[in-house]
Amino acid sequence: MAPLTHTESGKGATEYVENVSEEKLSSVEEDADIQYYKTYDISSIIRKMDLRILPIMSALYLMSFLDRTNIGNAKVAGLADDLKLRPALYNWSVTSFFFTYCIIEAPSNLMLKKFGAKLWLPFIMVLWSACCVGLGFVTDFKTLLITRLALGLAEGGLFPGVAFYLTTWYPRSLIAFRIAIFFSAATIAGGFGGLLAYGFQHMDGIAGLAGWQWIFILEGVLTFIVAVIAVFVIPNNPQDAPWLKAEERQIMAWRIAHDGDLRVPMDDAFKWQYVRDALTDWKLWLNLVTYWGAAVPLYSVALTLPSIVKGLGYTTIDSAQLHTVPVYIVGCVFVVLAAWVSDRWMRSPVVIIMLSIAVLGWGLALGLPVKSNGARYASMFLACIGSYGAFVPQLVTLTSNVGGKTKRAVAIGIQVGVGGLAGGVPPWLFKATEAKKGYPFGFRSAMIFAILGICSTSVNWFLLTRANKAKEEMISSGRAAAMSDEELAAMGDRSPYFKYSY
């Protein structure tokens, strides 16, 4: 992987390094030249972090997304026929994953905060790799349902964990591009999964196992291998990174803790008050609406694209699997491009533009004649570009505007957890009974969710702009200067010195 270049020195609100105590930060401020830390060009440090952190995080998420969505490839390879699954039973087997997936997110982030990423992330990977292998040996709907529930419980902590982990390494002005790098693994997983499924399904009959069984078993084994590698390459935080010099660790500790020129770093201790702050923050719940507006169309692509492509006229198993690959490759490019633009411009306009492209894609798929296979296949490119391209900027709109480590960990967990339920919706939108009609209900529903995301993003943009103006008024009137350091530290992102980004 080539180095990710960066010429900026970071801006925005505060991010924090794991296990860096206030005493250590105070010592840095007392013993070092503060101006030196402010003006130091961190480009070389960022490149080191990019090369060491992003590849393994991307590999983790690639396996995560692959193992949750490979049921779509397995269906095309004969899963539903062999287990005698009616369409409704298959849909429940897909949806069940998200029931347990959504409840573990916030608790998992708190466990990651306690035990560190080096142990926690590989641990949950081992658990879900076992579940994935187990899917290769299910014999009926009951065992399939139970194993999918277990898979969701084991896998649920990965995405919010990595998102939170990256906020402890990078200033928020750089975070969207980095999250996009690891999230782009989701689009790679779609294409990679199609290629793997194409190969594994040709093992049909080996050891008495069907092709769809080999898809689950071998992808589970690959996940276990990645988990073992992760134990040896993931550092808990910049302070534990052996490939950073002592001075570089100090610089990043200071820069992240004072990101945004806050007068006082926020309180990072665990307090139930900060959990309550997350639960009552309007930004969380409004962003959840946007999350669903991006996630339902995204999962509509991820979970149903093989079946959609098959319904477009590519009727053989091999053709349906292989025709998903180009769609995901193009989507991957736009995941990274949209995030890169959002870091350097604004996030809300990027989300609106991307979701508008998704609306166009789903709308074309809906409006074109059913037999226009080529044109409707092309519309899937637009749907994938818009749905995947909007996802990271909308996610980072929340992570960048929630201050304090505990509050941020809980908020990310809830956003990804409750938002993750969106993944259970598409199987009920793209009904097998409508395949011959071209899935009109599914295309229409995905388009409506994208429009909902556009509306909620616009409202969020307006409210954040108004909140920033109120903070500026507090500073200009002198009310902010009258606040004590303790008050400012406890206020978190409500501090007048914390500027929201949008």
TrEMBL record:
Q: According to its UniProt record, where is this protein located?
A: Membrane
Q: Which residues form the Major facilitator superfamily (MFS) profile domain?
A: 53-468
Claim: Transmembrane helix is one of the keywords in the record = yes
Arranged from A to Z, the UniProt key words for this protein are: Membrane, Transmembrane, Transmembrane helix, Transport
Record's bilayer topology term: Multi-pass membrane protein
The molecular function terms of the Gene Ontology recorded here are: transmembrane transporter activity
Provide GO CC annotations from the record. membrane
> Pfam families under this entry?
MFS_1
Is GTP-binding included in the keywords of this UniProt record?
Answer: no
Query: What Gene3D superfamilies would the database entry show?
Result: MFS general substrate transporter like domains
Q: What is its main location?
A: membrane
Write out the transmembrane intervals.
Answer: 89-107, 119-139, 145-167, 179-200, 212-234, 284-305, 325-342, 349-370, 376-397, 409-429, 441-464
The similarity annotation says: Belongs to the major facilitator superfamily. Allantoate permease family.
Q: What name has this protein been given in UniProt?
A: Major facilitator superfamily domain-containing protein
Q: What is the protein's species of origin?
A: Protomyces lactucae-debilis
